[in-house]
């Protein structure tokens, strides 16, 4: 059982064109999109 109550993971964000669900005897496979962002900061040092 998988509960997806995390706002970062969504089946709706994948889009209807790419949304596919596959079912086997004991498993279900589907695409999820993870929405997260990373901020990177760099301080450039001037060469002498």
| Overall shape | elongated
Number of helices: 0
* Count of discrete structural domains: 1
- Main sheet record: 2 strands, antiparallel
* Radius of gyration of CA atoms, rounded to a whole number: 19 Å
- What is the distance, rounded to the nearest whole angstrom, between the alpha carbons of the first and last residues? 59 Å
Structural class: mainly beta
Give average pLDDT, whole number.
Answer: 77
Strand content: 15-25%
Number of strands: 4
Helix content: under 10%
Describe the protein's architecture and organization:
- The protein is mostly beta strands.
- Strands 1-4 form a two-stranded antiparallel sheet. Strands 2-3 form a two-stranded antiparallel ribbon.
- The protein has strands at 9-10, 21-23, 28-30, 33-34.
- The chain has one domain (1-36).
- It is built from no helices and 4 strands.
- 0% of the residues lie in helices and 21% in strands.
- A hairpin with a 4-residue loop joins strand 2 (21-23) and strand 3.
List the SSEs and their pairings.
Blueprint: E1 9-10, E2 21-23, E3 28-30, E4 33-34
Antiparallel strand pairs: 1-4, 2-3
Question: Outline of this structure?
Answer:
By secondary structure, this protein is mainly β. It has no helices and 4 strands.
Task: Identify the notable features of this structure and list them briefly.
single chain; 48 residues; mainly beta
């Amino acid at each position: 059982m998988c509960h997806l109550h995390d706002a970062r993971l969504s089946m709706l964000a994948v889009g209807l064109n790419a949304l596919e669900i596959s079912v086997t005897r004991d498993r279900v496979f589907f695409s999820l999109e993870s929405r997260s962002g990373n901020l990177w900061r760099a301080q450039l040092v001037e060469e002498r």
